[in-house]
Amino acid sequence: MHIFDEIDRRLISVLREDGRAPVSKLADMLDVSRGTVQARLDRLLSSGAVLGFTVRVRQDVDDRAIRAIMMIEVAGESTTTIIKRLRGIPELYSLHTTNGTWDLIAEIHAASLSDFDRVLREVRAIDGILNSETSLMLSSV
User: What's the CA angle centered on 18, arms 27 and 92, to 5 degrees?
Assistant: First the structure.
C-alpha cells in the first residue's frame, strides 16, 4: 500500500481540480521540479494509488444521465475479490467500504435506463454479493 506524504496529497488535490494540468504547471503549483512531479505521478499510477485521470462534468450538463447509489452486502471474506470485479465496471463512478448493514457503497453513473439496468444485473450476478439496494439520485439540492 502506498504511503502518501504531503507532496503526494497536494499533487492529488491539484489533479482532482484539473486532471489535465501539464507537469510543468503542477511543478510550479507544488514548488517542486518537473522531474519530481513526473516521478510522483509514475509511482502513484504504478502502485495503484491513482487509478487514472478523468473528466468531471457539471451535473446539469447532461440531465439525461442516470445517477444512483447502490448499497451492497457481501458474503464472508470475499470483499477484496468483489471490489476487484466491481472496479471493472466502468459505470461505477466510485466505490466505498462502509460499516453497518451494508459492506460497500457504489455510485453509479449510466447514460440510459437500459445501461443502468445492465449495471444492476452485472453487479448482482457477481459471486459473493448477497444483497443490494439501489436509490436513484433525482436532483442535487
Answer: 130
How many whole angstroms separate alpha carbon 79 and alpha carbon 86?
Answer: 10
Question: Does the predicted TM-score (pTM) go above 0.70?
Answer: no
Nearest to 99 by CA among 135, 73, 120: 73
19 lies in the same domain as 71: no
Q: What is the enclosing helix (H) or strand (E) of 39?
A: helix 34-47
The helix/strand/coil state of 137 is coil
Domain encompassing residue 28 = 6-47
pLDDT tens track for 77-133: 889 999 989 988 888 989 999 998 999 999 998 888 999 999 999 999 999 999 999
- Cell readout for 6 is 504531503
Report the number of distinct structural domains present in the chain. 2
